[in-house]
Structures
1.
Amino acid sequence: MQNTFPLWKNLFIVMVLGLGLLYALPNIYGDDPSVQISSTRTTQLTDDQLNLIKETLTAQGIVAKAIEFNDDQILVRLESLDDQIKAADYLKSALGRGFTTALNLAPATPSWLRAIAAEPMYLGLDLRGGVHFLLEVDMDAAVKQAEERYVGDIRGALRAEKIRYASIAKVNDFVQVKLKSEADAANAKAVLGTEFRNLKLSDGKELFVIEARISLDEQEQIKKFALAQNMTTLRNRVNELGVAEPIVQQQGDARIVVQLPGIQDTTRAKEILGATASLEFRMVDVKHDAQRAAKGKQPIGTRLYRERNGQPILLKRQIIVTGDQIVDASSGLDQNNAAAVYITLDGIGAKKMGRTTRDNIGKPMAVVYIENKVETRISNGKKVRHKEKIEEVINVATIQGVFSKRFQITGLDSTTEARNLALLLRAGALAAPIEIVEERTVGPSLGQDNIDQGTLSVFVGFVLVLVFMAAYYKVFGLVANVALAFNLIIIIALLSMIQATLTLPGIAGIVLTVGMAVDANVLIFERIREELRNGNSPQASIYAGYEKAFGTIFDANITTLLVALVLFGFGTGPIKGFAVTLSLGIMTSMFTAIMGTRMMINLIYGKQRVKRLSL
Amino acid sequence: MVMLKQNFDFISKRKIALVGSGLLLLISAASLIVNGLKLGIDFTGGTLIEVSYGEIVELESIRSALEAHEFSNATVQNFGTAKDVLIRIKPREGVNHSQASVQVLKAINSSSEQIADLRRVEFVGPQVGDELAEDGGLALLYSMFGILIYVAWRFEYKFALGSVAALIHDVVITLGFFSVFGLEFDLTVLAAILAVIGYSLNDTIVVYDRIRENFRNLRKGTPQDILNNSLNQTLSRTLMTSLTTILVLIALALLGGQIIHNFAIALLVGVLTGTYSSIFIASPVVLALGVRKEDLMLPEKEGLDIDTRP
């Protein structure tokens, strides 16, 4: 009896191993420190920028390893980390604010490998360092805001139709419209019914009262929109922070995952992501006394605010311009060296501002800084969502002359605050407040330690198993060891190909796979030994060993795979990484430990008359 | 060639094993009820900050700095080396948690000459902590259930019950180990527990597979003999695989770093109990449930109208 594989089977196995080697290869080349330049919403990268980058680098005497330009970004690869930081600084000032400059570690994969789409494994944040945020969007607030918008819209619609109303106000979860007569009520209902198809109208308990509710479909739409809008805003903000390869992703109905690899200043990232800061411009009410209003009743048409020093101040209710109408903002210093934000308004905003300043020369105008804070606190053992709206007057200035589109504001505490405010105004406002519900930050030093320790434990575990197998199963053990090495290579190749995120628990999964992958071989070899003990010939024993062990291996691995799938389904982040490597490892080990070793055993023993097996 | 003694009477020792297992289960259950598990912030919510200093640092000075900044509920301890410090802050009433890490870092840096290198921050909000715990529990339940169905389908319901009994045995003892020794139980440890289920099952299935084969092929012998034979035939494989796995786990526990240390410990304990249970729990349970040759015969050989239930 002979044990041989048909040629195609041998070729197939060799081909899979070759592909595995090829696609695992990119992982040995390491990274290039590089600078990544990308366009923002308003700009487009062209050859002009490419030339400017080349000129700037030459002028500063920095040698770039390579400069790559592909559709929306330019990647400048550099020789050292020092060059990288220098180049980033020079390029930032040379290109101006229209472009984002980010530090990045770009894989140094040779072009021939990139041509076949071979890339190194994608390292998780726990390995490369960075921040992971889970943000929760306050959906109730989104709906509430919509109700408040409807109050204004309904008012406008009734006015346009000249229907007189007693009051329009938001009550609990609906908008209450009080009218003065039955005829008005009927007219109002008709108008609202045609103009606001998304509102459900019903009669209130009192006479001439209509209750308008936002339909459930519309509420769903509002929530979806709030989430989408918030993701856009967060993307803008993240881009403004200058992070290479950021991830902004929806998770579930109301949550957003933000991952910022390699970011150092997590405090700032947190401030910027969660912030809801915006501005409003209002005229100061000079007719009434603010001190008295603070103690008693506010005069009609005014609102009471406080300045940063705690002084009360009365402002007119009417808003001149809001943060939404700001199209650009940058920070700097004014002539007195105080922190300032330079603001550019859109057309409508500019017109309104121009009209107001023309009519009010010599009168004071106030800048209101608004911030919404949400956080979940524990109170009496229950989770309570705590909301806070901070409205402060940061600046009161007398209008000296007419201005409209471009102007500056001062009154901020520091240049940092000015810088952050400018960024937030540029990136746009959040549609609904968000709250950080989970944060995982890994510093760069720990990330590298994790890689080193992970690699070391894979290596040591691997060598231990090799020694043990070779000692116990001799030639067969060596064959199993070769298969195990290929198993590792194929796992790495697969992880690289599907670009699954490799995490520290993922590495642990690989280590565990190394330990368990030999199980298939142990099963086979023990079976062969048994067959030999029962007096069968070596060739027949090899044949029977592989045949009989297969069912067992299959059953045992399927159940482990089942568990790995459950882990994948329920796990988050790092745990998913473990599940991925474990399941990949199970599948690849079936291939290498059964097919791979069989091929080698066949080549060694298959065609000859064997008296003894080295087992 | 190393040969293991191949005729050990496992089944007759099942009473001793039962007493031993029972004792371990009792201790585990008692500790889990009395002490509970030392849950990590993944499940309780809270903030964890790991910092590293250039030189050895006095924990007392960090503690007092934190107390001065109203973090009196913080626990401060060394992590791995005397230069690394781990600070934990429990969720507290009326405090903004997502900013706690920033404030802690400010507090310890303002009171010390040395500037701390921020290694790691983990913040889990109260609403997320509950979800993670719930998902973890569900994952355990679903995987047990999935296994029950698969084994019942591939083998027979007695085997399904036997394997799940072994799994519960392993999980409870591993959890008990963490409870008794006060080791922190976090998400990675939960993943390890699930991996233990996978491993232990793997072991059990290999034994069951042989039991089935022997029941079908051997004409003579009591169920007890067949189980004993099967256990002995698979013994060297069981020990070899456990040994290689334990070797790599020891490497992982010693060299893998602090973050996955407990993960490796959970797996080590789990693999040890898993190996034991596949021999002393899974098979005796099948015997106790009264497994017979007829349970495992292929239907076409036995005719169509055989009722496989006892």
Note: Chain B touches chain A through 81 residues (CB under 8 Å).
2.
Amino acid sequence: MRKKLLLSFMLLMSFGIMAVYGQQIRVTGQVTSADDEMPIPGVSVSVVGTTIGTITDVDGNYSIDVRSEDDVLRFSFVGMARRDIMVGDQRVINVTLEPELVGLDEIVVVGYGTRLRSELTGSIASVRADDIAGTTQPSFESAIQGRAAGVHVVGATGKVGQAVKMRVRGVSSISAAGEPLYVIDGFPVTQDNLGHGGNEPLNPLADINPADIESIEVLKDASAAAIYGARAANGVVLITTKRGRDEATRFSFNVQQGFSDPANKVGFLDRDQYLELFYEAFDNRMALGYSPPWGISDPDVILDILFPFRDHESQPNVNWEDQAFRTANHQQYDLSVRGGTEATKIYSSLAWTDQESILKGNSFDRASGRINVDHAPSDRVSLGVNLSLTRTRHFRVANDNAFATPLQMVALPPLDPTHIPGTDPPELNRNTLYDNGLLPLKYNTEDTEIFRNVGNIFVNYHILPQLTLRADMGIDILNHRDIMYRGRLTADGGPDGFGYDRTVTRKNLTTNTYLTYDNNFGNFDFNAVGGTSLQYVETDFASISARGFPNDNFRRIASAADITGASSSGTKFSFLSYFLRSNIVYDGRYILALSGRIDGSSRFGADNRYGFFPAASAGWIISREDFMAGMPTISFLKLRASWGLTGNAEIGDFSSRGLYSGSNYAGLPGMVPTSIPSPELQWETTSQYDIGIDFGLFDNRITGEIDYYHKKTEDMLLNVQIPATTGFTTITSNVGEMENKGWEFVLNTVNLSGDFTWNTDFNIAFNRNKVLNLDGQIIGVRWRAMEGYPIGVFWMPKFAGVDPDNGDALFYTDDTRTTTTNNLAAAADQVVGNPNPDFIGGLTNTFRYRGFDLSVLAQFVYGNDIRNGGHMWQAESFATFDNKIRYLYENRWQQPGDITDVPQMRLGVGNGYGLSSMQVHDGSYLRIKDVTFGYTLPRSFVQRANISNARIYVKGLNLLTFTDYIGWDPEANFTGTGPGSQTMNLTQGYDFYTAPQPRTITLGVNIDF
Amino acid sequence: MKKFKYIAILAVSVSMLLYSCDDFLDVEPQQSVSAETVYNDHEGVINAINGAWARMGSSALFAGTSIFQSDLLANNDDIEWIGTFIGHQQMFEKNLSITDGNVSGKWSVSYDLINITNNVLANLDVVNPGQQERVEGEAKFLRGVIYFELVRFYARHYGATADNSHPGVPIVLTPTIGITEDSYPPRATVAAVYDQILNDLGEAKAILAPGGYGSNAGRATSTNTSAFLARVYLSMKDWESAAEEATIVISQFGGASALHSNPRSAFNNDSYTPEDVFMIRQDATSHAGSANTGIGTFFASLPGYGRGDAYITSAHRAKYEEGDLRNTYIEDPDIMTIADVPAMFYRGVGTDAGNTMTAKWGKWDANIPVIRLAEMFLTRAEANYMKGGVPIGAEPLDDINVIRQRADLEPLLTVDLDDIKRERNLELAFEGHRLHDLKRWEESTFDILANEVPFDSPRLVLPIPQREMDVNTNLVQNEGYIQ
């Protein structure tokens, strides 16, 4: 019915046009697919430059009237390459559409404009809608993982909706943020965590529906990124949402459902193993001549004190690791509509996703809607609105470094029962060694609800055919709300309950005004864009906490007896920027691009308010030279080189100021100094050069890119350590230098074409980070920035193995690593690991045969170390009673001559217990990240149901991981808690009771009609 | 006409492009004020001194580390540590790490507070004349007390060298404006630090008003300055001065009658009590922490409060005499808060339940008694006993019996030094005295392997924090730590 209406609408329109023009040429024909030679219904057929258009019927036939033989017919269809055909003397035009291939002629979004990929002179990695839409993760960043060379994405652990870490070409700052700048449809969006300080950072980008994204471009080198000036040093991620198209309106419905398990379980001791180790550790202690622990010489007495229920007839033997995990469900529904006319185009979507984490108590859901409208009332003016509304909810559990987090339950020995034996109904055991994590799971809630409105309006005015003025204004309004309750029976909420309520409002306003000039002068193509941008961001916080609730049924502050804390606060920052960029292409062969941006920010010191960020780049398309004509193997070859300056302005809003903040002494208002002035404080400057080759061989069946880059960051924003005797421990200054240099290789091949197609996309990136100069400073304690070393090296005593004669844990006394000691306190701290990988990359293989498609993404990280903080207790010699990993049980030293890396067990006194490289492991891994198998139903079959396209697919995420890492998951990223912790560049490679990635199986159906 | 239109459009767009406003970049903070404006007026200086008091009550100082660090480090057989915080474990084992957060935190907050007092003292001229003496006195009180805390934790004991020329801590007496050459001070000698302490506390005592119960027990008075001076003189073994200062305090507070009838009443109070000579004020919104910091978080095991990390051994409880009110004990699974504990010890009911816990630290938002009147009796008894000759204020026997009788014990007929030491140990247990008492009495303690640790062992002196050693090459590390 709908289709008929549309058809009649189209007919009416063409009729109207006929009336105007009178003289008509009728063209008819059929559109078929090159894939299966089946007719395609719903293909948009239009006359270029007019509003005349129609669509093909169910048999792929069309009929259209054109004005002259010079008219060009345009055939377009989703997923197919668009074709333009001049009418000429033809009256029947049958068209075959090829599947759309992403290639050198694709349009790439750049800052304040677009470019042809073949004419790019910078380094830009692109990810397309197909790879993004299928994601079963809450946010789109995971779609980039393994698909963009040099972009290191570390996932948000097994908890859903947490911050994802993304580093473009290494870490280029120590104290300032390391995340790239995220720009959606031309507007920088709120990307920093607004969650409260007691939990891990949340990811505001999870408010964006991945299915709405048309493309993601990662601007990696300075020439691409410098147009974003003082905030581009970490790279820029440009996100473009889907827009309407000048073609028949098409509805698309996608549903997916599935379940997840932990990608890995570690395995802890069971009852018998624990007891065996306990007695052994006790005997070892006594044999070494130590006094009995607490003066008790019978180990069973100690066990009875520690585990009051151990001898209960039920013989408690709890697998606490299993208590933390569950099989999690997820589901997602997307409905979108896309279409339009020459004058008005629309894209609109509605989506719902609901994802459970593999950790009990943790889930995420999101309802989102979007409408993007373009309208051109005349040849001179076009305008539009993009608007998205989202509600995101996070149902959270405590941070990884809290007893209340589910995964810390693994610390509980199997002798502690979950419930008190013999109680009916079963009462949760509150007498466990550490807090019983099942109590907070039952009684605590921590809900975060976010309402987000990202929208903008824009108008383009074509002053001259070559000169366009654009003015736009964008808003990003984020309302964040945390509501927490901790039950009276939990350790954190007792004795009478604890409630916390917090709101954050972030208003982020940006306006751009710029002119674009495009013209040809003979063989010269000239393009320039210049304008100004203003951004103003204001954040307000309010929170209240209380204790004393009548019972656990009352969870809001109104019912509480004691207000224990209340606060409201706010902060702001602003940017004022001017930018200019020009591109000159001579004869389609020689390309020169220049850009510059002036950025001023309220964050910079009064003495250094504005910075200038220039960039220059050049490209030479060698394959278009005459002398290359004799080399048909090389279908495309381009050399490019770029240099530019970018900045990092992600310091605190008021770091340049010497400040006092309020502080009260039991009701008496006061002020305390919080920072020492630094009036010359400015942005960090990163200069980067990049040399690259883009190539295509055998008619572009093999394409690739090779890049070498060198990034040098100077004037680093450092929280420089100063003597605490001054009253301050750090001052924010521009000190120090760091470099990242490396190679990136991208290779895309079409291995087989025809009925059976096989494509391979491979990328690998080698980055070397080195801190060059810190003015003699050492930043950090256990993760350090030190001159001559990569950022974030681990600094602690070096474990030297186990003495085969007596089972002692040995440590090197100093960094020459020649002498050892069994006294950890006498072992010098030294560099024992590097969290930065040697190389990262991904390999995607895509196969198609008739309606079947299969794609397999393998993603790898090599050469990085991980510090497993939990191993301090999970993998030590029974100085503590925490349950231990099975590796310890299987490998411990037992008798002279044993060669192992697990020292002898010694109850209470320990054996090498404490922080050392014993807890540092190789974190390299290769992971089958994503396997998708789909089947597109034959068109002839679905047409009967008026469906133009139907595909069912099954998707597996993290199906297999190859690693030597001892722990849940080498993709570990415990960032600590607090609003700023996601920006920390030092604390890399930290696993602290961190949940593994989920292994997910999803079934999906996608229907277009 | 058409041309005109173009020009108009161009003019508008160019003006938009050049739209500039420097004011746009002037953004003022909302929760902070610029440092340069703080000391411009009376109110600013008053706010700063109040801020200094807030620092005094931070978890790194008197609402936390200053108190339990002493007991944990000196511990022989009174406390068993079973917590997971490595820093505290190392403290308990007397194997401190140069990178320990408690060690560096206490150092940093101490000098932060000293910097505030230096700022206040440099800007007294803008304070209203009527309040100048109070503000000056408080600033000097705070500075003197903090230097005393620093020197007795981070340096070898007073008397370790004959002229006390061994390294103390850096002395900073001027406000920090920026980083200059003077920002890297070396350690002054212990003698110099003690001179500074006596100077500051002496001046504070001279200009502050006296005050007994009810007058400003959470802030400085001439009386509680005397109480700290008694501590300082005791550590210097200046027995006469210690006894004199203690006598001033005892008489200001009205003598033995000011003591609570039950020792239990001196703890977990929300308001001033007659026995509080100096306390840190806390309330529900302003306290040292309820989860991982503060004193009770380690010593308590209650539903929702305390980690149960430090429990009290049977060896400690065996030290009390029969019927001692300071040794009362209760086992009750229904205990919800410390108010349900009518005893000095209880069987833990929260985290790590089942152990014996002290009831002295059971409420995160209660006031922290730093100096109780009982301490003054014990100090005077010891000082008079050591001094010999004519006692100042009262006979040692009488002072000891004041404490014993309050604990419902029979008075002694004669007193010797061991009686005085035992009474002090039991009365002031877990209140932060143990380390300093051992050093004064030159008594050894033992580590968990039962090795003797002499009173002058480097293991009983905190290291200079490594972060400080890294940034200030003029400092020397204490003996026994990696240089």
Note: The mean pLDDT of chain B is 91.
